[in-house]
Amino acid sequence: MWLLAVLATACVWVGNYGYYLAHKLPDIVFLNHYYAFTPSPGRPMDLYYVTHRDSRRQLVTVQISEQVHWYVHGTSTYGDYGPYRLHKASLELIPQEGQLPTEALGTFREFRVWYSDGPSETVPIGEITFTPAEDLQGLPLETVQASSSSTGEHHHTLAAKQDVRLQSVAFSLHSRIADAFDMSVHRTMHEEVTVPFELKTGETVTIDGWFRFEPNDPRRMEAYMPEMRLRLEPAEGSASSGIRYWTQTFYKAPEPDKQGIRRLIEDRKGAERLGE
Prior knowledge:
This protein has 276 residues and is of the alpha+beta class. The chain is 16% helix and 46% strand. Residues 4-23 have low confidence and may be disordered.
């Protein structure tokens, strides 16, 4: 009997070890991020990556050029999915006093990353575009109320500091999320009046944006940050001149599940094998 017990224990151990090897993740796998925005001082950018739950490896540095690299200012566990763990790392792109270097402007599909245990590698991260900042001095609108959620609902109320015409509105990532992102810009208390329209000094405009991915939409596994650009022109009869832009980002955190995490890992491993 004791021999059967030993054999049974050995079979269980071998089975568990086989399961561990089958799900072992030697490298960090990054989720796809689709960001197109203007970085601002003190505002972080989040990156999401998967490790095996037993791994202690963490992201510490991101480099996009010889001169530009960012340190991770905080990492948290976003969730556990079977044998895997999803992490959220926050990067501060611009200090409170400063601006984004010219070399950091443009579109990036890969980052060079360094880990806590020393190694570095170049990894796919989706597609992230950094755009130059607008001059905010003398902007005819100011925010008076704002709220947002990580699930993608955003609300902003702006007040006119002077008479201004809201001529048009557009948002980045249109080709990727136009069917799953809704946005409304209208005069407060006048929902039937949409862009273009004029605001008198002191009047307010309401801007709402929300994501609506279906439950089986693979984009739920991805992080999104489009930016809205509201074109402002002088109101009729106004003494001011020139075209200005008011910008606002809309953030959507990923909503992963076990199956999505496994598909992501399998897809990345398959892509690596094809590249060998």
